[in-house]
Amino acid sequence: MFTPHTKRDVEVMLESIGVGKIEDLFTEIPAQFRYPDLNLPPRLTEMEAAAELESIASANATTKDFLSFLGAGAYNHYIPAAIDNLLQRGEFYTAYTPYQPEISQGTLQAIFEFQSLICKLTGMDVSNASHYDGATAAAEAVILAYGHFRNKRKKVLVSRAVNPQYRQVIRTYMQAETSLQIEGDEIETGIEPDMKNLIEKIDHDTALVIVQYPDFFGRIIDYTQLIETAHQFGALVAVAVNPTALGLLTPPGEIGADIAFGEGQPLGIPLSYGGPYLGFFAIKNALLRKLAGRLVGETVDADGQLAYVLTLTAREQHIRREKASSNICSNQGLMTLAATIYMSLLGKHGFQQVANLCYQKAHYAADQLSGINGFTLVDEKTPFFHEFVVKCDEPVDELLEHLLHHEILGGYDLGQEYPELQNYLMLAVTEKISREDIEYLSAVLQEENHG
Amino acid sequence: MLVPEDLKYQKTDEWVKVEDGIATIGITDFAQDSLSDVVFVEFEIDVDDEVSVGESMATIESVKAAAEVVFPVSGKVIEVNQALIDTPEVLNESPYIEGWLVKVQVSDESELDKLMDAPAYDAYCQER
Hey, which residues 40-99 in chain B have their CB within 8 Å of chain A? Predict the structure, then answer.
């Protein structure tokens, strides 16, 4: 047991403050709340507790035992064993940027490498040391843009094809900014791939336009015209990207994005029921001083040796207080390291190979499914990456229930977040899915269809 | 330390010079020296903005600190020295001439009476 103080230590401390016993320190708390009856079950030994927890955990349907076509923002990629091994080294095993960061040169170097890799991947100029997850990175994009125009532009447009959770978190973060309008994701604006309705809403009062690439439905949309229009009106454009897809796609930096951000979970981080995840955030040079969060730079020390430092900290709230662009003063250290190791291990070609496998397998799956009676591929024209939508003849929840009996997590029921998309099922296919897996899914769906 | 005679000074180390109702505003030699090397200037107002005394016009970031510059007079902004964005070091080299920050059409010249003259500002700096 961990006992920080001996009985003698405690006695000395109590004596020096003139208190008889520890309980006397709590007399301010009304007696009935002081030692409430917690009604706990009898205590267990470690062995018994472990057995009970394991038995509870085994009731979960996980991607270990089930075939999974679930995506919608979190993806089941293969995670090389080296990642966990390196992460658990004591030198790295901390969740945040250290409080005296320069003493932890290894941690700073890892963050610097992460920033460099994210810049390479996104085609942007500067990346910060990360945020909590894709959704909070989205909110930071809004804060940055709103502040960039000194709160004078009152509108942020968000495409309805941006992850619904990101849109919710943006609204949560910005709820106190009552003069800021967050719009563009109404049902009437829709999700047509030409983006016409959204483009029409861009005006001189627009601070930021947010789109996703590939979008929430997996579609690869050409945003050239949207970005041109936004820039004509002086607005910024933030693109939420799936990092894996950037192994194949033109990076957002090259299509004119001012901000590129996204969920870093696909980069070697387990699904883990939703977290801890990793938000990445990169910008063009012009926005450097508005960038939130930690930023690691490379320099030389007094002896002329390579060294890493936190740089441009005047952006941050511990120096600029109320003028800072964000309250974020740390980063998602351990997850950042996982992503850095993942990208380094795969290398450029490995990364492209993962993206290509996802793409090819997803297209094989879409092909197979659209051949089954009762299932229609919703959009046959717009290119997609590793996720696609099918319309089903029956309610999606019933279908998913049926697939669960066959140990398949069948995908994401779009009707949950999009009332206009009842009976629409979205499936994600990563490199972990084999041809046999896809054929098994088809067989089960076909049988379902006949049954 | 330079404290030109023909300027008026504010306690927060801004200088102001009024000619024909137009106030030119900058930071003093004392301010630039205390800040040391200026690396970034961010304006917080635009031309045509109506501003009042005490309102923030810019943030100046140096290798040592980030400091706020506030208006010593009220009025309407008519010009912003955008050149400083690309060459912030001018604030160190020439705080009273090329390093001016903002020009304002003064709405109430009596506000100038509340500011220090050169000898008073010089004495104020000596105390610090």
Answer: 40, 42, 44, 46, 59, 61, 65-66, 68
Q: Which of A152, A289, A323 sits opposite B40 (nearest CB)?
A: A289
- The pTM score is 0.88
ipTM of the complex: 0.76
Pick the CATH number of B8-127 from 3.90.228.20, 2.40.50.100, 3.40.50.720, 1.10.730.10: 2.40.50.100
Rounded Cα–Cα distance for residues A31 and A12 (Å): 26
In total, the C-beta contacts within 8 angstroms joining chain A to chain B are 16
Give me A149's structure tokens: 């125009």
Digit-coded pLDDT (tens) for B74-123: 999 999 999 999 999 999 999 999 999 999 999 999 999 999 999 999 99
Residue A222 buriedness (CB in 10 A; 0-12 / 13-18 / 19+): middle
Assign a CATH topology to domain A67-79+348-450.
Aspartate Aminotransferase, domain 1 (3.90.1150)
Residue intervals in chain A for CATH 3.40.640.10:
81-341
The domain A81-341 is classified under which CATH number: 3.10.290.10, 2.60.120.340, 3.40.640.10, 3.40.50.790? Answer: 3.40.640.10
